[in-house]
Design a protein that fits this description.
20% strand; eight-stranded antiparallel beta sheet; 333 residues; 13 helices; globular; alpha+beta
Length: 333
């Protein structure tokens, strides 16, 4: 049976109301698990935390250079964009540069993820579009890479497609996980999604932050270029007031989260990689857990911790602003 620990408790009037359990793994640059909470061999799906890995074939093929993509546009290859105006503008200009028919995207039509632009779309009777799906940038990258490599675009989303096999090989290499031990499922947008032990997931985070650990020179250079773009355009990767952007604003951090409570981050100077999973799939306590991790390792950039803490303060307030409860991190790494 998998071992896990309580990570966060929420109280209201000093009565325990909610408990969030999970698993955390942190590795050093020797890939040793020096921080652990729970069973770090627990297999976990990356979900959208895999987007930087899924973007690497595009960066290896130098799609960003060959099509003259701006950093904003190239960052969309790694993004879970949330449909703000700057996302839509970058998506449309990227689509034009890549000369991609919207109908060729396999991701389904959607409205913006963020509430304000989504409500505005609905108010104005703007129809859902594939381009507005939060994975649209990734899918455009898939199509452009297939064309560049001479691969068929038909079925680019299928597990057996050569592009998806390349992504699987890259993941196996970076995570040091044999292909036979990678569990493959289908993600929300319809493309393959991968599950590996949390320990190996943390190794991927480490290598994205410390690409000098990647022996393959071309892959190392692609990772360096990609992560630099993610830091340059941190709001493109998510948006204001979301944890990916709050972390990536700090150029010492490479970070990406995924659905159902999985989060990955790497620290460059400290040469550490972390992966965590909230077992009930909640994303609500990501800021609390990640801020606590950074505090526990005495992370130097206190402004980053403050920025993350501000996303979900430890005080719970009523709708009228009255203090009614508290959030407590109860784990030790």
């Amino acid at each position: 049976m998998m071992q896990y620990k309580t990570l966060v408790e929420e109280t209201r009037a000093n009565l325990l109301e909610n408990v969030y359990a999970g698993v955390i793994c942190g590795v050093n640059d020797r890939k040793e698990a020096i921080y652990r909470v729970g069973d770090i061999q627990h297999k976990t799906y990356f979900r959208s935390a895999s987007k930087p890995i899924q973007a690497l074939p595009a960066f290896l093929a130098k799609i960003d250079f060959k099509y003259g993509l701006s950093d904003k546009e190239a960052a969309l290859l790694t993004a879970s964009q949330r449909g703000e105006t700057y996302h839509i503008e970058a998506l449309e200009s990227m689509q034009e540069k890549l000369n991609i028919e919207e109908s060729s995207l396999f991701c389904p039509p959607a409205h913006s993820l963020n509430a304000v632009p989504r409500d505005e779309m609905i108010r104005r009777n703007i129809e859902k579009r594939r381009l507005y799906h939060n994975c649209a940038g990734k899918h455009m990258g898939f199509i452009a890479t297939c064309r560049e490599l001479g691969l068929s675009i038909d079925g680019y989303w299928k597990v057996e497609h050569p592009l998806q096999r390349q992504i699987l090989q890259i993941l196996s290499y970076l995570s040091e996980t044999p292909l036979s031990e990678i569990h493959v499922g289908i993600d929300g947008c319809g493309v393959p999604v991968f599950a590996i032990p949390l320990h190996n997931m943390a190794i991927v985070s480490l290598k994205l932050a410390c690409p000098d650990l990647i022996e393959d020179v071309e892959l190392r250079e692609a990772v360096e270029r990609m992560t630099n773009i993610m830091n340059n355009e941190f709001n493109i990767v998510a948006s204001e007031h979301f944890i990916c952007s709050a972390l990536l604003e700090d150029r010492n951090i490479v970070a990406k989260g995924g659905a159902k409570g999985v989060y990955c981050l790497g620290l460059k100077k400290e040469r550490l990689g972390f992966a965590l999973k909230i077992l009930d799939g909640s994303e609500d306590v990501w800021p609390n857990v990640i801020a606590s991790i950074l505090e526990q390792i005495d992370y130097a950039n206190k402004a980053t911790i403050e920025r993350v803490r501000a996303l979900r303060p430890s005080i719970i307030k009523s709708d009228g602003g009255i203090e009614v409860g508290a959030i407590h991190e109860v784990f030790k790494i």
